[in-house]
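Protein modeling request. Please complete all fields; requests missing the sequence field cannot be processed.
Requester role: graduate student
Desired output: 3D structure, token encoding
Chains: 1
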Amino acid sequence: MILKEENNEKNLAQNTKIPVDYKQYKMEVSKNIMMPKIIAILILSSSIMGLLTGWSLVVGFNSDYEEYDDISLEIVARNTTSNLENVTILFDNIEMDYEYYGNGTYNVLATPGKYMAKIMAPMHKNASMEFFIAPQESNLRLPDTDEGIEGINRFTFIMEEGNGEIILEENVYLKISFWCPNLMFLFSLIGIWGAWVTYTLQSYKNAQIGAFFSVLGMGFLIIGPILSIVALYYLKKHKNMFTASFKN
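Delivered output (248 residues):
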């Protein structure tokens, strides 16, 4: 009886023997264990570049450019019907010397920087305009008109008859100085948050949002967006690494 049981156990072991050609199951070790860190570093690098670029704009628009050479500017003074002659030009309440070209156009020399300009003409309201003069080559001209570039080195003051003061619209550079750095800071901070979300694998969608805003942060103008676009590509390719990606 005992011998029979031993034979049965032996036969059972032979019948349940794993075939030689059967591939043994090996627990798969993820090859993408470093991918969340790599993507997070891409997003973080782009976001930091955005912060640095925004800060450089703040510094640039508020820097002292006294060591720069004077730039030739065109100040145009006219009303709705005619050009104005014999005007007084003030930059930051300092009267400027000028050369009159005719047609209401005056040539003024000034270093780069931010100015509050005021034009005073007889029988007209004083007109003020704040503008920023960026470092540039002197006497830039449009080839078609042989005039300066409006908002860059040419500023037109449309005067109104009467007494009092009028404030004219600031130039594009000043609008950029207000909006661009603030938006870069905001988008870059969202990007930093997205890098953390990616690193901790919290949410696929939130990681995408962070990477997208790091693109808008315009870090170093081109380099940052390229890094963020690469991060977006790999996020989509490896979205299954997010444990909650099916929910988010």
